[in-house]
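Hi D.,

Good news: the full-assembly prediction came through. Inputs first.
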Amino acid sequence: MKFSRKILAATALFAAMAMGMPLAAQAKTLVYCSEGSPEGFDPALYTAGTTFDASSKAVYNRLLQFKPGTTELENALAESYDVSDDGLEYTFHLRPGVKFHTTDYFTPTREMNADDVIFSFERQWKEDNPYFSYVEGASWEYFNGMSMPDLLESIEKVDDMTVKFTLTRAEAPFLANLGMDFANILSKEYADKLAEAGNEADLNQKPVGTGPFQFVAYQPDAVIRYKANPDYFRGKQPIDDLVFAITTDTSVRQQKLKAGECQVMPYPNPADIESLKGDDSLQVMEQEGLNVGYLAYNTKMEPFDKPEVRKALNMAINKQAILDVVFQGAGEAAKNPIPPTMWSYDEATEDDAYDPEKAKQMLADAGVENLSMKVWAMPVARPYNPNARRMAELIQEDFSKIGVDVEIVSYEWGEYLERSKAEDRDGAVLLGWTGDNGDPDNFLAVLLGCDAVGGSNRAQWCNEEFNDLITKAKSGTQEERAELYKQAQEVFKREAPWATIAHSVTVMPMSKNVTGYKQDPLGGHAFEGVDITE
Amino acid sequence: MLRFFLHRLGLLIPTFIGVSIVTFAFIRLIPGDPILMLAGERGMSAERYAELRSLYGYDKPLIVQYFDYAWSALQGDLGTSVVTKRPVIEEFFTLFPATIELAFVAIIIAVAVGIPLGVLAAVKRGSWLDQGLMGVALIGYSMPIFWWGLLLIILFSGILQWTPVSGRISLLYFFPQVTGFMLIDSLLSGQEGAFKSALSHLILPAIVLATIPLAVIARQTRSAMLEVLGEDYVRTARAKGMPPRRVIGLHALRNALIPVITTIGLQVGVLLAGAILTETIFSWPGIGKWMVDSVFKRDYAVVQGGLLLIAGIVMIVNLLVDVAYGLVNPRIRH
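Then the structure:
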């Protein structure tokens, strides 16, 4: 008793001593309530958006980058580039005078050059590079996922400021790959210095880049601190300090934003969006996400091999009800397999109107009676489908109105992804896709190309006309390519291998005094050019 | 005493082996392949899948995997996280001080409030005070932690704005970590207001985490006190005309505390379990949240290594409690 009373008294005394003392002086600081901890600070090792926000978006640059708020590429560390006529050689002319960050753990002695570019790619590619397996389990997921090892023939230094990439085949989407988060340019000088001291793992803990912010400190699961890079090649940032306050719980994140403990938060609870919009101290930005949620029929199995049957089922789905119930308003009906923020999106496409009567008639005309089918519901929430179970139930109800009996099935997530690939799979699968690099090829070839049958083409749909168009579209100028993709979308709509359901809408609430923030259609969160007004 | 201690220590070895087998098996029993999870919708080719399985050693027979794991664990290597690619032991000890700090303050609150309440309820047995206190204790014991935590956040941080919503210290303060305990580090930093900020961040999660142990301790103290208060020696002391305060404080409470100490020791496990939820709600950067995330990602090395370390700590604390108990009560040494 006496003991605990003493502790209480001491605690109260300390608290009293600390009270009334003024707070530390404030620099111009932007606090972002991020949704999770980064896995590390070398983005090429990982695939999570949370990691990219904390590493590549803040600290690094790439040869080419996406123009803020768009999926279009612009020159970044490359000042210009040439493409050979056969589309196999890409020569990049590097921007002169770009400095790597000077931090308390590294002082660069030279500016960015071709060695850094070659190092940044070769460490993911060549097994004899000392950084190829510098952390246990390094698998360079995105570099491999985007088929870079098959695509790259060689990377050569032409001179100090010129690098030539030679490809094994002509492939225009290659440029978009270079804008992705695995393609950051790291300092070879820093990596060499770490290797000399035997501290290779620090490359993943204490990043050095050329980006708008430089890394200061990271306290796991709590906070990441950055300060503005004074030598940034596009000029110093308007804010002095950038802080990521890691807050995993959505409700708590929202409370912190309202209490002014942070100025920007991602991923609000859909049910709370209206109340956030009603808050006078906040502004709420909205944009369609670079994703699509779909129901993929198995076009190899009867009766789903008939386009008119698929079309009829599509017409029976009440998308508005799904948007209201599953997305709670934070979604938009999808009519094309690619999202509206992507170049080449076909505005002219007409969606299948919701018409159960006509759908019933079409099924009867196709000679389909007493159809019973399975609908697969994913066990996890994704941006493109926040509640697949509920969505499947709504579709079940819709289909029952046209006399189609639906059984809902589900598996553990890894199992679900694996089993749904099978070409003789029974039933239609709810799934979706979030774009990697803003190139239409990343949707249309990955999800609907003939090569992807038995893999990520869950409709098992191989249509010659469509496949020719998307193959042709792998080279040429953006205008030429966009035209081909539009034609491909027409074929898709006619043949209906999927019911395209929705694109999510990404909602970003932030304080009213935050200016210059641009929502990234690719799903990242970047603070370059963001300011706080008093 | 030494024999007693060695005997208890000897019992730890088979328990520890058991825990290592259970934790190893537990995460593998949950359906889900960590590599497929890592790949997500993108998927990967069969060759790539096989390559990664062999990279992480999942292609070996389970029994071989277990012995590899056990052998490395004996040498202090608990493996590497598939997700972050960092050593499990390094991650654990970076986050552990935050959990200890939270649990330590919570147990102090639970003891400092729970014992007096239990004594009060016992002394006023049957009164409205007793029934009221025990009713509240029962509610505290049954309260879902995540709900209770959110309720307190909405009231104290949202409506009244007395405490910050989450985190360990205001983001204005930035100083190197010396001990990893924010209350101590904030004092050492010498920055004005840092300690107050750390304390105000700690208070709500500590109260939430203290709730269940507090209720248990209060109820245990009450029943132990009631038993002791009925003893002959208490009646004798009263009959001698000793002031009631002295009878309760000196004679009754001391003896009643013996079972209460055991209860407090057992609360260590409860605290670490409760910390998982509390930390998730308050974004408290401790091992609780880390473990939860790892289970969802099927990060085998982290789940089995983390559980092994937590179980080890609980076992050691219980051993120390047993020893302390032996010191207090010489009868059980043999």
